[in-house]
Specification:
The complex is a heterotrimer of chains A (167), B (103) and C (395). Chain A is an all-alpha fold. Chain A is built from 6 helices and no strands. Chain A has 2 domains: 79 residues, NADH-ubiquinone/plastoquinone oxidoreductase chain 6, subunit NuoJ (Four Helix Bundle (Hemerythrin (Met), subunit A), Up-down Bundle); 44 residues, no CATH class. Chain A is 70% helix and 0% strand. Chain B has a single domain, classed as Helix Hairpins, CATH 1.10.287.3510. Chain B is elongated, with a radius of gyration of 17 Å. Chain C is mainly α and 395 residues long. The N and C termini of chain C lie far apart (76 Å). The chains are: A mainly alpha (167), B mainly alpha (103), C mainly alpha (395). Chains in contact: A-B, A-C. Chains A and B meet through helix 1, helix 2, helix 3, helix 4 and helix 5 of A and helix 1, helix 2 and helix 3 of B.
């Protein structure tokens, strides 16, 4: 495997690890952004340019900023007193380690039957567009509806209710 | 180790890190961060399989990843809206305090 | 003979690069070619920034009925050198409670993200650094990364004014980014490609001597005006510069930055202005194509940079002339007028695409755009003017 791949994987995994370990929530959000960038670079390495740039645009440009805004609106940037880990964190760690063990074993066991085409696929924006309005038009429309509902719902849930004025 | 196996292992590790974050942290927002990491790990799996599959012109993996990115963004918005609403009510985002249905 | 001279001067940078590369072995050529182009971009645009700084200060001065800097050099033209020396020699003050790492990284991230945007702009015929299939998407992805840098700067300074300025700037940038994307989408719809050199190629045709630039179509004009508004808001320029308004917030999110880091923020803002003007020129003004078919002998890169400097001049003019918009007025404007109008413009673009060529589509689309403008801007925004003032106090 190429050297560049290991560096990008190290950035992604390092960013993810930092994001779940640090005390200061805003630092976690910034480390998450680094993880997203690493992932976008991995997508670019896999010749999926549209997905890579969409990942940067959506995740770094929108989700990371949402997370940061939520942290600031919930006073999360003050360093918390006491531990940042919940009482049952050891069980969580064991569960995560077990999941990784099972997944890693499954991948390595079945590695011999994986496809391994080396030809670079072409996924131009035009092909993606044709696929979106051709074969995948129903998921596209449902996604549009879902995004609308999610936007309206998020606004209603987070809306500051105006207090009733007297008189 | 083929490139595909390497990518799948990275995705599995990313998923485990996200799961650990979602299960061990107290702050509700960090749980959402863990969930985003898990979704991204699944996306990486899809794109890796699409790249090395025998029929990449069907664009299935790519489409799945794109839809997943969009849905994850919507879900992050709603989840964070919920966290903000809960904070307004309980004045804390500590998940250990959110153990009652009353109030 | 004149034709070869015109062609050579048009491709002069490409010929220069090929001549330099001929000295190298075959293996190194692609890497050195990219390196050379990157070095040229990294050196040229900051030089243009120095020129624009003096242009702006003199221009603003003249608009405000004063002279502007005129001490350093003839007519003050060496002022950027004095500014550069000043910013390099000033003490770099970092507040003790500031988050050191993030405070250091914020200007770096901003400048890197802004420089990446230049990689896809076609600055002349065959003069694009990377001809990406998803060039426009790449540009917007890099634009989205600058917002995070602004937030990092404001939050890490541990200063109320910085944080407030940063939140305002990020909210403004997110709102107007959607509009930027949608106005660009109309162009993509007509061209059928996200690749910027192809968009310029599609506009490089002439009929009766007049060019086929998209700004000369009804949806293109509406799209360009919306794009210009969104571009002004994205780069935090007046009249949308409340986040860094000098009279409002000390200096907004770069309050706690001094010396070279402040110079980097300044550089980042102006480079963002250049790159977004360059994109506007590419999408709507025909990029490197000449305005009239009898002027195609002038090198293409001269046209591109003229259009860029014209946009910069309009930015400076707006800064000197228009008053600042308040934050809620700005957000109101974005979500209640510009966004619905841009969506409607997208539909008009679709109509334009599917109607046949001829005078009918011009009439129908112009009528639709004009009617939408009158309805959305004049009629529905009118109620904002006379509403009684309501007060909400911070709690």
């Amino acid at each position: 495997m190429s050297f560049v791949f290991w560096i990008i994987a190290a950035i992604t995994l390092g960013g993810a690890l930092t994001a779940v370990v640090l005390k200061n929530t805003v630092h976690c959000a910034l480390a998450l952004t680094a993880a997203f960038l690493g992932l976008a670079l991995l997508f670019l390495g896999l010749d999926a340019q549209f997905a890579g740039f969409a990942e940067i645009l959506v995740y770094v440009g929108a989700v990371a900023i949402l997370v940061v805004f939520a942290i600031l609106l919930t006073r999360g940037s003050e360093t918390p007193k006491g531990s940042v880990y919940s009482r049952y964190s050891v069980v969580g760690l064991i569960a995560a380690a077990a999941v990784f063990a099972v997944l890693g074993w499954a991948v390595l066991q079945s590695a011999h039957s994986f496809p391994n085409e080396q030809a670079v696929p072409s996924a131009t924006a035009q092909q993606i567009g044709i696929a979106l309005v051709g074969r995948y038009v129903l998921p596209l429309e449902i996604l549009a509806l879902l995004l609308t509902i999610a936007t309206i719902g998020a606004v209603i849930v987070a809306l500051h209710e105006k207090e009733e004025t007297n008189g | 180790m083929t490139p595909l196996t390497a990518h799948l292992l990275v995705a599995a590790l990313l998923f485990a890190i996200g799961l650990a974050g979602a299960l061990t942290r107290r702050n509700a927002i960090l749980v959402l961060i863990g969930i985003e990491l898990m979704l991204n790990a699944a996306n990486l799996n899809f794109i890796a399989f699409w790249r090395y599959s025998p029929h990449p012109e069907a664009l299935t993996g790519m489409m799945f990843a794109i839809f997943s990115i969009a849905v994850a963004a919507a879900e992050a918005a709603v989840g964070l809206g919920l966290v903000i609403a809960i904070h307004r009510h309980l004045h804390s985002t500590d998940l250990d305090h959110m153990n009652r249905m009353k109030g | 003979m004149f034709a070869t001279l015109a062609r050579n001067s048009d491709q002069i940078f490409i010929l220069l690069r090929d001549w330099l590369l001929a000295f190298l072995p075959m293996m190194l050529r692609p890497y050195v070619s990219v390196l050379l182009s990157v070095v040229v971009i990294v050196c040229f645009f900051p030089a243009l920034f120095a020129l624009t700084v003096i242009f702006e200060r003199k221009g603003l001065g003249r608009i405000q009925n004063r002279l502007g800097p005129n001490r350093v050099g003839p007519y003050g033209l060496l002022q950027p050198i004095a500014d550069g020396i000043k910013s390099l020699t000033k003490e770099d003050i970092v507040p003790t409670t500031a988050n050191g790492f993030v405070h250091f990284l914020a200007p770096v991230v901003l400048v890197v993200a802004v420089f990446m945007g230049f990689a896809v702009l076609p600055m002349g015929r065959n003069m694009v650094l990377v001809d990406m299939d998803c060039g426009l998407l790449f540009y917007f992805a890099m634009g989205a990364s600058t917002e995070l840098a602004v937030f990092m700067a404001g939050w890490s300074s541990r200063n109320k004014y910085s944080l407030l300025g940063a939140m305002r700037a990020v909210a403004q940038m997110i709102s107007y980014e959607v509009i930027l994307l949608l106005s660009g989408l109309a162009v993509v719809m007509i061209t059928g490609s996200l690749s910027l050199p192809k968009i310029v190629e599609a506009q490089n045709h002439y009929s009766y001597g007049l060019p086929h630039w998209y700004i000369f179509t009804p949806w293109g004009l509406a799209g360009f005006v919306m794009y210009a508004i969104a571009a002004t808001a994205e780069t935090n320029r007046s009249p949308f510069d409340l986040p860094e308004g000098e009279s409002e917030l000390v200096a907004g999110y770069h309050t706690e930055y001094s010396g070279f880091k402040f110079a980097l923020f300044f550089l980042g803002e102006y480079l963002a202005m250049f790159s977004i003007s360059g994109l506007g020129a590419t999408l709507f003004l025909g990029g490197w194509s000449a305005p009239f078919s009898f002027l195609t002998w002038v090198p293409s890169w001269i046209w591109f940079f003229s259009k860029l400097m014209l946009s910069i001049f309009v930015f400076i003019w707006m800064r000197g002339t228009l008053p600042r918009l308040r934050q809620d007025q700005l957000m109101n404007f974005a979500w209640k007028f510009v966004l619905p109008f841009t969506l409607f413009n997208l539909m008009v673009t679709a109509l334009w695409r599917f109607m046949g060529d001829g005078w009918l589509r011009w009439a129908v689309c112009s009528a639709l755009v004009a009617a939408a403008y009158v309805l959305m801007a004049r009629v529905s925004m009118r109620r904002e003017r006379f509403a009684p003032r309501s007060y909400r106090y911070a709690e």
